[in-house]
Every structure is written in structure tokens, then in C-alpha cells.
């Protein structure tokens, strides 16, 4: 079966439409109260690898539902007026997600260059996933 578009094409198109924040710039935003890092990885990835300090976990499969104020699953954090920096493992899921949220009207939204893998490789801070309770 021939696909109309490959994932690689979709990510490239999304990346052309969104803002990508370099890791060094992202590190300067860690203490910015008006910026929220949003980890869209699967919970197993968070448990295995940790996450960016202060990040909010929004699983990729629920993201649009949590952002939409008309959804029964809406999370008020997405109506906070903050700037959102999405990240995943390698910056593919976050590029697609940031593009989708931008189309929905969430602003400002961007994604992290290189994803969590790039963040860790740069020696940026990582914390364990907070315990649920």
C-alpha cells in the first residue's frame, strides 16, 4: 500500500508551520512562570527516563481533548494563558502535536528541538516522574 504522505513528510510540514525552541533557549525558560513544558510521551517513557523539571504530563492521545474547553476532558491548565513548549522523545510527536494545537487556536505553542533525547544529551536537568497520589 502506498501512503499519500509519510510520517517524515508530515513532521517536516508541521515543523515548517510551528516554532521550534532550541535546547539552550528552552533551559532559560525553566524558571519562567509564564512558560509550561508539556511532556506528551507515554507514561512508561516518563517512568523509565524521567522528565523535565516542572513539566506537565499530557499524554499524546488525550492532548486535543484536554486543550479543548468544550471537551468533557478539558484541563484548565491549557486555558491559563501560558506559553506551551511541547516535547516527546525525539521531536516528531511534539511537532505534529504543536501543529495540531496551533490549528486549534492554542497560542503560543512551540516544541523542543531534539525532544527529550536531545535535552538529556545536552546535560539539561531531568527529574523522576512525580508519584501519583
TrEMBL record:
Its signal peptide is none
Judging by the UniProt lineage, the source's domain of life is Bacteria
Q: What Gene3D superfamilies does this protein map onto? A: Rhodanese-like domain
A Pfam family that the UniProt record links to this protein: Rhodanese
Please state every residue range assigned to the domain named Rhodanese.
Answer: 31-128
* A GO molecular function held by the record: thiosulfate-cyanide sulfurtransferase activity
Database matches in PANTHER family: THIOSULFATE SULFURTRANSFERASE PSPE, THIOSULFATE SULFURTRANSFERASE RDL2, MITOCHONDRIAL-RELATED
What is the name attached to this protein's record? Rhodanese-related sulfurtransferase
Q: Which organism is it from?
A: Tistrella mobilis (strain KA081020-065)
Lineage runs: Bacteria, Pseudomonadati, Pseudomonadota, Alphaproteobacteria, Geminicoccales
Amino acid at each position: 500500500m502506498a501512503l499519500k504522505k509519510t510520517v517524515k513528510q508530515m513532521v517536516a510540514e508541521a515543523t515548517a508551520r510551528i516554532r521550534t525552541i532550541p535546547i539552550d533557549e528552552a533551559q532559560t525558560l525553566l524558571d519562567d512562570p509564564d512558560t509550561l513544558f508539556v511532556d506528551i510521551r507515554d507514561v512508561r517513557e516518563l517512568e523509565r527516563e524521567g522528565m523535565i523539571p516542572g513539566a506537565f504530563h499530557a499524554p499524546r492521545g488525550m492532548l486535543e481533548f484536554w486543550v479543548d474547553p468544550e471537551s468533557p476532558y478539558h484541563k484548565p491548565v491549557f486555558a491559563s494563558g501560558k506559553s506551551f513548549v511541547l516535547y516527546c522523545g525525539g521531536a516528531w510527536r511534539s511537532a505534529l502535536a504543536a501543529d495540531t494545537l496551533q490549528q486549534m487556536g492554542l497560542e503560543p505553542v512551540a516544541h523542543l528541538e531534539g525532544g527529550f533525547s536531545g535535552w538529556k544529551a545536552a546535560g539539561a536537568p531531568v527529574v523522576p516522574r512525580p508519584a501519583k497520589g
